[in-house]
């Protein structure tokens, strides 16, 4: 299976660094608390683009050098999917309910799997992918070289 992440090129000099989880560690996110490293990605490149459009300020995207990075792992790598009970009332709102970060923090601390599949708050029928860079199986994840990425100018005005 693959996962995609679009980063500012300066944060992705190589594929592995794009998935370091450092940004999420510094700022926290829907599925992790500040101080907890996890890499956010999407099951498709198009969802990764939509997630970036949703979260980044448009003025930073216009003309900014971006890179699309792919992570790939073998079919026999154990993957966890967040159970339906995790998606509490209002789970899509921003800021997210603390229960989501608590679940993600536990998943990371317990080192249950290297990969956690979660529903996208932007398109709930699609999946985002969390990668735990500290999990022993993270060594089995391959990272492709960053590819230049740009948005159609009609999307970023």
Automatic annotation (TrEMBL):
InterPro entries: RES_dom. Residues 18-145 form the RES domain. It comes from the Bacteria. It holds the Pfam family RES. This is RES domain protein.
């Amino acid at each position: 299976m693959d996962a995609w992440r679009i980063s500012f090129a300066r944060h992705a000099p190589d594929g592995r660094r794009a998935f370091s989880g450092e940004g999420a560690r510094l700022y926290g996110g829907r599925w992790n608390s500040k101080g907890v490293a996890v890499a956010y990605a999407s099951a498709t490149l198009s969802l990764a683009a939509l997630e970036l459009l949703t979260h980044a300020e448009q003025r930073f995207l216009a003309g900014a050098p971006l890179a699309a990075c792919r992570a790939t792992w073998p079919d026999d790598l154990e993957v966890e999917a967040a159970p339906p009970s995790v998606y509490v009332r209002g789970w899509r709102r921003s800021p997210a309910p603390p229960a989501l970060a608590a679940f993600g923090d536990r998943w990371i601390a317990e080192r249950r799997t290297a990969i956690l599949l979660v529903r996208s708050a932007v398109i709930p029928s699609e999946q985002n992918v969390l990668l735990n860079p500290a999990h022993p199986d993270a060594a089995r994840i391959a990272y492709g070289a960053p590819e230049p990425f740009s948005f159609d100018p009609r999307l970023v005005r």
